[in-house]
Amino acid sequence: MKVLPAMLCSSLLTGLFVVSPVAHADQQLAASMCDYVKADDKNRFRKLLSDNRLRLRNIYDGVMCDGHPLVRFAVVSNAAGAGEFIIKQLPAAQISSSGDIAWAEANHAGSALIAVLKERAGGGD
């Protein structure tokens, strides 16, 4: 009878040690992405993705910076180089349906990324 609780306890503890570093690594990667976008460092952003074998389109929805998706954070941060890289990595359909163009025009009308967003949304994928 005491074997079952012991097995359950040990499997839960093992699960905590296995899952915890992954969540921490994901948070660390997201924080680094946000830092590179804020600094408008396209090359380090690209290297981070490459070193971790990540495709931006696969992880984009899971990364938020100061409450904004990466494209909007690039607009807010006035990060033209990093923002253009991000926009070009995403499918045109995602750009078209995200509402990022209308948001940028309403909140940051002078952003250079608006033209890049419009071009990508109209170009198809």
Tags for this model:
single chain; 8 helices; 74% helix; DUF3718; DUF3718 domain-containing protein; signal
Strand content: under 5%
The whole-angstrom Rg is: 19 Å
Strands, total number: 2
Number of helices: 8
Largest sheet: 2 strands, antiparallel
Keywords: Signal
Protein name: DUF3718 domain-containing protein
Pfam families: DUF3718
Organism: Rheinheimera riviphila
Description:
- The protein has eight helices and two strands.
- It has one domain (29-123).
- It is globular.
- With 125 residues, the chain is mostly helical.
- The chain has helices at 3-38, 42-51, 56-59, 70-76, 80-89, 92-98, 100-107, 113-123, and strands at 64-65, 68-69.
- Strands 1-2 form a two-stranded antiparallel sheet.
- It holds the Pfam family DUF3718.
- This is DUF3718 domain-containing protein.
- Keywords: Signal.
